[in-house]
Request: fold
Amino acid sequence: MHIGMDPACQSPRAACSIPRNLIRFWHNRSELPDDVAACMVSWDRLVDHGFAVRTFDDASAQRYIRERHSDREVAAFGRCAHPAMRCDYLRLCVLLDEGGLYVDCDDVLLSDGWTRLFDDDRLKLQPLCYDISGAGMMPNADIWRTDLPAGQRNFYVNNDPIAAPPRHPVLRRALDRATELLLGGDVWPEIQATTGPGNLTTVVATHAFALLLRGEPLDFELLRSWDAIAEMRWDLGYRRDDRNWRNVYGC
Reply:
């Protein structure tokens, strides 16, 4: 699908290097649940803003990786035993190659705040924090507080959403690391650390440290208000069966 130049890109100060591609994945498009489909429909209005909207499934993801990446990535994708892993891996492949915005199929678009994701060419990621003492996720607004006890929080970045220019070094390293882990021989690799937020967090932290050592500015942004732009719907039927990776891995 050909997309004409966004008028905003005609400004000499606008980087506009994050293309208006919306990327999603559901492993079996012929068995897409109605409640998930309803979430996906909320994003349809982005087409009116020049977006190319693409939803991959297992077959189209495999074709894409075979056509655009190497035999190693094809083999690694074949090692992704659960749909969630294939979804994790596919988003890295597409965003590295083309750039754009990835969102999960159970995310619902709430507002037009998405426009700021395309203000510059920095990678955009959602920060998360697990409250160890409270045994639950911390509200987004509290992540940035400085008056909370040290050692009681686990900070990490989510891999939903990801807004990225093509060829961002974080995505390159995240894909390479996931590929190495998948091809490393473990019979049942753990999703979070191998292809999911754990993998991405490790790479982002390493990348940020290297930039700071060189005195270079950060080329990524942690989003403070993603929850005002979109929200994940938890009351969906698939979460109660083995399509939910947490049920398979006991998380």
Observations:
- The CA atoms of residues 96 and 171 lie 6 Å apart.
- The longest strand covers residues 153-164.
- Residues 1-16 have pLDDT under 50 and may be disordered.
